[in-house]
């Protein structure tokens, strides 16, 4: 839920923070990696996850915070073989209308200088609505609410290198008021792949779609639509 912050007592603000969520750990090629579990700067040990300041949603696809929930750096990275699995884990999640989208970005060099700029982001996985109605529970985020994880496969043919992986949930429970929740981790893809996405598979973040895109600005209770298309490019499978 998003409320206006004006007039709300502190206890309610705390409840509001508790009602959202963020990726708090990962399982990558079978190894568990902690993420941030408190708000940064937290007393967390070094992680593979780019630190994020709070559970609050980003309200615009054009806000730079939408990239990695404001996170810009992390001390560690995790190896993953092309074709391997990445599981993101949320310690809490409360919304069940909206898509899950998993993106990657190839860093031009070191993680420390990798800022996510340019039209280089691509999707490796997504799930929007699998069956109507829009107001129902047949959504990627409903799976996350129930299971508190999302697992994706790194495309088998993807060329090795330093990548960011970005897990994005869009909460669509408020009419025409989308909420974006995205966190990033640093992964080192290994293997002998030589493929890279190009053209229509690539997007910039922020701004991977217009805010007015029907996959972003939608009234999931009022709309009579029986279909939903995830915003942004198609998934690249290699
Ligand atoms: C996610 O992480 C939390 C906190 O570390 C843990 O309690 C929970 O079991 C994990 N859930 C999954 C689905 O791995
Ligand atoms: C991001 O990194 C690229 C390449 O390292 C650099 O050219 C660019 O100026 C940086 N952009 C920002 C906004 O920091
Ligand atoms: Cu929320």
> What level of helicity do the residues show?
under 10%
* Quaternary structure state of the chains depicted: single chain
| Coarse shape | globular
The portion of residues forming beta strands comes to 25-35%
Strand order of the largest sheet: 3-9-8-5-6
User: Which blocks of ≥5 consecutive residues have pLDDT under 50?
Assistant: 1-16
Q: Tell me the CATH architecture.
A: Distorted Sandwich
Looking at the structure, the CATH topology is: Coagulation Factor XIII, Chain A, domain 1
Bound molecules: 2-acetamido-2-deoxy-beta-D-glucopyranose, copper (II) ion
Secondary structure category: mainly beta
* CA radius of gyration: 17 Å
Mean pLDDT rating = 92
- CATH class category: Mainly Beta
């Amino acid at each position: 839920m998003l409320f206006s912050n004006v007039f709300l007592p502190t206890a309610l603000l705390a409840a509001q923070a508790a009602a959202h969520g963020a990726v708090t750990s990962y399982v990558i090629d079978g190894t568990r990696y902690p993420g941030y579990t408190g708000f940064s700067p937290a007393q967390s040990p070094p992680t593979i996850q780019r630190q994020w300041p709070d559970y609050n949603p980003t309200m615009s696809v054009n806000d730079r915070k939408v990239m990695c929930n404001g996170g810009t750096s992390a001390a560690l990275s995790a190896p993953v073989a092309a074709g391997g699995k990445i599981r993101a884990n949320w310690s809490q999640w409360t919304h069940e209308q909206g898509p899950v989208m998993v993106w990657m970005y190839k860093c031009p060099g070191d993680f420390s200088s990798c800022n996510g700029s340019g039209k280089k982001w691509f999707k490796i996985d997504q799930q929007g609505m699998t069956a109507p109605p829009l107001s129902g529970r047949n959504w990627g985020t409903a799976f996350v609410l129930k299971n508190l994880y999302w697992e994706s496969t790194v495309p088998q043919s993807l060329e090795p290198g330093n990548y960011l992986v970005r897990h994005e949930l869009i909460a669509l429970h408020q009419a025409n008021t989308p909420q974006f929740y995205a966190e990033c981790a640093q992964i080192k893809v290994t293997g002998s792949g030589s493929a890279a996405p190009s053209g229509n598979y690539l997007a910039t973040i922020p701004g991977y779609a217009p805010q007015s895109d029907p996959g972003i600005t939608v009234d999931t209770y009022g709309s009579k639509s029986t279909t939903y298309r995830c915003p942004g490019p198609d998934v690249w499978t290699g």
